[in-house]
Amino acid sequence: MDSVAAIVRSDSKRALATLIRILGDIELAEESLQEAVAQALEHWPRSGRPENPLAWLITTARNKAIDRQRRRVLERRYSESQQDLHEVPSAGAHAEEGMDEAVLGLHIQDDLLRLIFTCCHPALARPVQTALTLKTIAGLSVAEIASGFLVPVKTMEQRLIRAKRKIAEARIPYEVPRPADLPERLGAVLSVVYLIFNEGYASSGAGELIRVDLCKEAIRLARMLVRLFRGEPEVSGLLALLLLQHSRHRARTDADGQFVTLDQQDRGLWDSGMIAEGRSLVEKALHQKRPGPYQIQAAIAALHCAAQDPEKTDWPQIAELYAALEHRQPSPVVTLNRAAAVSKAQGPEAGLKLLATIEELPDMQRYHYFHSVLGALLAECGRASESIAAFEQALLLTRNPSERAYLQSKVTALLGQDKAG
Amino acid sequence: MLYALLIYQAEEVTEAYGESEQAAVMTAHGQMQEKAKAKRQFVAATKLMPTSSATTLRGARDGIGVIDGPFAETKEHFGGFYLLDCANLDEAMDYARQLPHAVTGAIEIRPVAYNEVVTPDPETGIGVEQFETLP
User: Which pTM was predicted?
Assistant: First the structure.
């Protein structure tokens, strides 16, 4: 991606939330922003980048929306929002001034946060909440979201269309909820931020294995939430978890962009600043004695980061933490990770025994990482042909080139071993 | 925007209410209505007779079938509704939460697509609250 395209892409993501607030319609905002982005990609390389690219994109997109709606529909919305101004001065007061360049920058964050709470509104089903946030806040494509949720693209498209329709028809507000509703609404937001990070951490799309921009976006959102909900241990736990995971990102791929497993990573490449911040956050959070899934996961990540070399990893404690996590938040993915930890602490047979409890589940059968872990444990047990079958199954399920290369190398090594033995 | 708050409740539960429980339900409705009226958001409130009084017309192979009873034999029945003028879904949800049926039954919130009201006419009696005096 060249630099102009990269700038346009990151600016357009920031512009969307504000446009949605101004236009009061997600669909309209997305479409008109797309047109503005196309115009930017055409003009900016020739005539130079405007002084305030963000304001340029928003203004241009807004004008496109006006063209598109032939002013009629929009004028009705504007006159409605004018009425709203008198009733709720704090909520919509900057709808028009928002176009001013200086004011604009100040409101972008507010608009994003407002939009997150809209996307995570309880009147929308949980899968819809996450999908919508990934689309409108993180700027993922429908295909990427579909892949993240293990559903067909068509299904995801329909889900997003229904969601936008419901927001418009039922008038789900663009507001940060009242303090009384915040705890309940926050849980949904946290899990969405976590999912955004995961999409960047192990990208499902073709291309880079790790999408640093997405990880940074999730961390940025988590920081915003920590500022807003100071003292809420699960919010700190989430930020700690993201920082600790992201601290390893430079070591997770090699010079060729290939995936490097945890035990093979150059630990000198880990970001010690992020690790220190993450550890201090999770320690402070755990001190409040209100543990939750994010704090436990952050504690696991902190143990990984504390080991100077792989042999010094405290696998028994990690396995125990996964058991605690499984108890609080039972899910086959947690069991899968616990199996990997248990195999390190007690040997591959113990890990395989845990995998056997989830292997029948359709979600696991469709999940490439399940087959990848299974393949590794079988290989450790010397069951080469079964291991090859598992790795090949994993290969069928992931399109990520780096991950495919890793799996392919495992298969090749095992085939070589087979011939040698 | 107009929202309909559709109230669903198991009839055996409401039938079994004692005097004090009945009074508590009515008080909650009264308080909610007062708030909505004070904020000029109240449009209509309708309570239906029990389903034992219901007649259902339903398309059948040879025309229209007439059934003695409600639309569906379910545990919870549609018992009545409010029409409220709210700024957004959150406001409508706030009103719904003030009603005991949100706990003892269910309240479905639906945005209203079309609504036409006849101005009450005391001479003909159309649109006047005719059942005001009923217990």
Answer: 0.66
